[in-house]
Design goal:
By secondary structure, this protein is an alpha/beta fold. The chain has a single domain, classed as Rossmann fold (3-Layer(aba) Sandwich). The protein contains 8 helices and 9 strands. The protein has a 7-stranded mixed sheet, sandwiched between helices. A hairpin with a 2-residue loop joins strand 1 and strand 2. Helix 6 packs antiparallel against helix 7. It is globular and about 55 Å long.
Length: 260
């Protein structure tokens, strides 16, 4: 019987094995684009948080408080410097299904930020975070590990966790359909990278799965629809001809009842 690559236990085991090399491999194999795309994802989060301040035609004041940020599928935390640069008072809750990814994040990257980051080893589809508690939510390059049904569940989770007026931004590597250079991109992603891995990393059964997830994922369009169906305001954007796509938006604030 074929292994279900979207089974949470399979995903956790895969990224446990990849954890010590994932950060370097993703940076090298993307020619550094993952750094840029993470920054652009946080830039969109900043923009949406500013949009969220406009309610009923007025600009709400900024309240000096700790900003609660959820990082879904947090991995080794490469997005945290961007988040903390944009929101210095942020307190981040990092959720990832892989314990080894959490350990790698702490020991190799973010020891000095330990007081700003809480780690939760959990499946983002069924975590029990309280509803209406997150000011901001971000996810970078974790969506591809969910099939369409799971993305719909995840959209409901995001809508539940965000507080009214909260903002989110998600980005994922995608298939640049319609780009003239797409055949070369696909040949590199699905042919060259697995070959390089077999020759130099000797972990072809692990990192090559990332290209499989990316091919199956296609782009963020389904997640866009799922988030909108969950009641959130959503905007979609392509990055570098569609090699990555992102979705960002806000959770609407309920209108006040009209006083007779």
């Amino acid at each position: 019987m074929a292994q279900d690559i979207y089974d949470p236990a399979f995903v956790a085991s895969l990224f446990d094995r990849c954890s010590t090399r994932y950060r370097r491999w993703s940076a090298v194999s993307s020619f550094g684009f993952v750094w840029l795309w993470r920054k652009q994802c946080v830039d969109r989060l900043v923009g949406q948080s500013n949009v969220a301040r406009i309610h009923e035609g007025t600009l709400s004041p900024r309240i000096p408080k700790v900003t609660q940020v959820i990082d879904l599928m947090a991995g080794t935390g490469e997005v945290w410097p961007h988040v903390l640069g944009a929101f210095p008072r942020a307190q981040i809750t990092a959720i990832d299904i892989s314990p080894a990814m959490h350990a790698e994040a702490i020991t190799k990257l973010h020891g000095t930020r330990a007081h700003k980051i809480n780690h939760l080893t959990a499946n983002a589809l069924d975590d029990d975070l309280p509803a209406n508690t997150a000011d901001l939510l971000v996810a970078t390059f974790g969506l591809k590990t969910f099939n369409k049904e799971q993305q719909t569940v995840l959209a409901g989770q995001i809508a539940r966790i965000l507080m009214p007026g909260g903002s989110f931004s998600l980005i994922e590597a995608s298939d640049p359909i319609g780009w003239p250079l797409r055949p070369f991109y696909r040949a590199y992603l699905h042919g060259a990278l697995p070959l390089i891995e077999r020759l130099f990393l000797k972990a072809a059964q692990d990192f090559s799965m990332i290209s499989t997830y990316t091919r199956n994922f296609e782009n963020c369009r389904h997640m866009e629809s799922a988030l909108r169906d969950a009641g959130l305001k959503v905007t979609y954007k392509k990055h570098f001809f569609g090699c990555a796509t992102s979705i960002a938006g806000t959770k609407p604030i309920a209108q006040k009842p009209v006083t007779p």
